């Protein structure tokens, strides 16, 4: 396997920008690619804000921040990924879009470069199938916020080459992450279980069994979780939760993942959680954490 020193990240939304930060903090050169200059600027702003916060908290000095930011190139041209040893795709969760990106990558990167998808729930097998080298495709699933949470799921397909899986596990460990290798089923491991839990929480709210505050308190204080389910769904994004839940349900048909009408109504009403300023709770600044 070629050594992984340069990484490409496609899509610089919350997850993509966080993934760029993780690799740059780990000492790798990163090329982040977006479709438009506006989105590219937004991605750079997320990276800047996250590292500014680390400086403000005394976790990073200004020289360290400059070093991290200096390892990152932001571009609107996929062609700039030609030298990447590993590319992580973090574009919206639309299979046709993933296929388009992976087809282009086939023509851009070296034949022995590794291709990974950060999809939350779509099938890696399906993403890899139309590519010229499905053996070099794996899932590399980060958790939100990516710079903080240590877990990464490395998702393998029937075609994933063992050397590719080993290389992705090794680079994840170099980043200070804790990789787990899992098979390709809807929701993989963590989201399969987490979204079943979200669905149960939503049912309790729909039935008026408990208030959102008491539900969150029960799980935070009683189960020792950092956030209750409503706060966590607001963090993940209610539209994202709705989509992931639907994908898992469409594959499993398990009642544990049956769609919540209340969640659907919230999404249709534009209540998307922190990013829109309102979800289960209202936030002082869209994207910010302070509950008002
Ligand atoms: N980006 C970068 N760093 C962040 C951050 C962000 N968005 N949010 C928080 N941090 C950092 C802070 O700077 C701080 O760093 P420090 O300890 O070095 O100073 C540290 O995280 C702790 O932050 P806070 O003190 O502000 O707040 P908390 O202690 O409450 O922690 C939290 C915030 C890390 C978000 C914590 O509440 C948590 O872990 N919550 C659960 C998150 C979770 O379960 N995520 C998984 C969601 S599912 C998923 O992502 C799968 C996907 O497919 C949908």
Automatic annotation (TrEMBL):
Q: In which pathway does it act?
A: Lipid metabolism; butanoate metabolism
The record's Gene Ontology biological-process terms are: fatty acid beta-oxidation
Q: Which residues form the 3-hydroxyacyl-CoA dehydrogenase C-terminal domain?
A: 187-283
Q: Which residues form the 3-hydroxyacyl-CoA dehydrogenase NAD binding domain?
A: 6-184
Q: Which UniProt keywords apply?
A: Oxidoreductase
Which is one GO molecular function term here?
A: 3-hydroxybutyryl-CoA dehydrogenase activity
Give the family, as the similarity comment puts it. Answer: Belongs to the 3-hydroxyacyl-CoA dehydrogenase family.
Q: What is this protein called?
A: 3-hydroxybutyryl-CoA dehydrogenase
Q: Which organism is it from?
A: Ornithinimicrobium cerasi
């Amino acid at each position: 396997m070629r050594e992984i020193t340069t990484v490409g990240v496609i899509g610089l939304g919350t997850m993509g920008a966080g993934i760029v930060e993780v690799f740059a903090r780990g000492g790798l050169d990163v090329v982040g690619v977006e479709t438009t200059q506006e989105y590219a600027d937004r991605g750079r702003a997320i990276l800047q804000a996250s590292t500014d916060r680390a400086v403000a908290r005394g976790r990073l000095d200004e020289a360290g921040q400059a070093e991290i930011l200096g390892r990152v190139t932001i571009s609107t041209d996929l062609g700039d990924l030609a030298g990447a040893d590993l590319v992580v795709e973090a574009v919206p969760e639309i299979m046709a879009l993933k296929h388009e990106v992976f087809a282009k990558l086939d023509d851009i990167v070296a034949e022995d470069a590794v291709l990974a998808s950060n999809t939350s729930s779509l099938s890696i097998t399906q993403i890899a199938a139309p590519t010229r080298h499905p053996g070099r495709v794996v899932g590399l699933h980060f958790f939100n916020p990516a710079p903080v949470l240590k877990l990464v799921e490395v998702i393998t397909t029937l075609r994933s080459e063992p050397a590719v899986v080993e290389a992705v596990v090794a680079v994840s460990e170099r980043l200070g992450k804790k990789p787990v290798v899992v098979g390709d089923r809807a929701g993989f491991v963590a989201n399969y279980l987490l979204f079943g839990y979200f669905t149960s929480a939503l049912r309790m709210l729909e039935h008026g069994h408990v208030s959102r505050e008491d539900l969150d308190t029960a799980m935070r204080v009683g189960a020792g979780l950092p956030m209750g389910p409503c706060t966590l769904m607001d963090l993940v994004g209610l539209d994202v939760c709705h989509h992931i839940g639907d994908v898992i349900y469409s594959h499993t048909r398990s009642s544990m993942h049956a769609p919540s009408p209340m969640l659907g109504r919230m999404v249709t009403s534009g209540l998307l959680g922190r990013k829109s300023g309102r979800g289960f709770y209202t936030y002082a600044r869209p994207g910010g954490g302070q509950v008002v």
